């Protein structure tokens, strides 16, 4: 299959590109490199630098490259930034999706896998979250992802563009050879921040709040290895190819770990006694997010291989140790 991956130079996008190639697909990447890294794109993929906001470019790539299916990652992703700059998120994420779907409709490409988020749920009424749980996002980032899913639903009924939205919970880890991994600037995510602090020995790691309604007072999240997440995208493509049925799937491990438990695991894995400061809450963080991924496991046949938290952190640690300055070295 010939697959266009938008945002294929990003963290999850680049791991999915690798999986698609291993699965025998021809891959074309479109990325504007605002947050992605050219070095993260597997050399076997054809690379276009550009934005999904450029409908003509997307249409040209779809037709010229004879694309069969699209996996859409290209979007802004920081919860905190979305609260401060909502229009940036609505413009890039929602308009990006509309442009992509317009180009797909025109080019007669009818298969889409979309990188959605657990942020679509907001504050859970009940855990674990299933795909039927209410969706009430509490930040513009989650709201844009939900709007993008809704747009997909109506373009399915109007134009027959079949799509799968994958709602990720928390993602960590790196490729098994540590050649690609997580490198955001600025880094805001928990696992890389703990490990970068361990690597630098700067004592700058802060936990955001210990007064949440959780057993140890710190937020609880559900972690998935990025390699397992990448596999789910390939399974989603196969599913759409066979079943032509639009769906939404949660991708998580069904195990919640508090921020303090993640820190403890990182101390164990690195052998470094990582100092930390207990800081105030970060706006927009729900107490706990834990996924019920039974649907993905049953319907897609998704079986995460790396579901031990120490293994996930060890994989992220290997990338930090080999890339202490990210892709810059
Ligand atoms: N945290 C810290 N210190 C840090 C960084 C994070 O204490 O330096 C805390 C956060 O406050 C939160 C937890 O670690 O309690 C996880 O935060 P991340 O920023 O790593 O991840 P989020 O849970 O905010 O968001 C991630 C993805 C979203 C997705 C969400 C769904 O970035 O896209 O998971 O669970 F929507």
TrEMBL record:
Residues 3-252 form the NAD-dependent epimerase/dehydratase domain. Its EC number is 5.1.3.2. GO terms for biological process: galactose catabolic process via UDP-galactose, Leloir pathway. Its cofactor is NAD(+). InterPro entries: Epimerase_deHydtase, NAD(P)-bd_dom_sf, UDP_G4E. Keywords: Carbohydrate metabolism, Galactose metabolism, Isomerase, NAD. Gene3D superfamilies: NAD(P)-binding Rossmann-like Domain (3.40.50.720), UDP-galactose 4-epimerase, domain 1 (3.90.25.10). Pathway: Carbohydrate metabolism; galactose metabolism. It is an enzyme of class 5 (isomerase). Homodimer. It catalyses: UDP-alpha-D-glucose = UDP-alpha-D-galactose. Pfam families: Epimerase (PF01370). SUPFAM superfamilies: NAD(P)-binding Rossmann-fold domains. This is UDP-glucose 4-epimerase. It comes from Lactobacillus psittaci DSM 15354. Belongs to the NAD(P)-dependent epimerase/dehydratase family. GO terms for molecular function: UDP-glucose 4-epimerase activity.
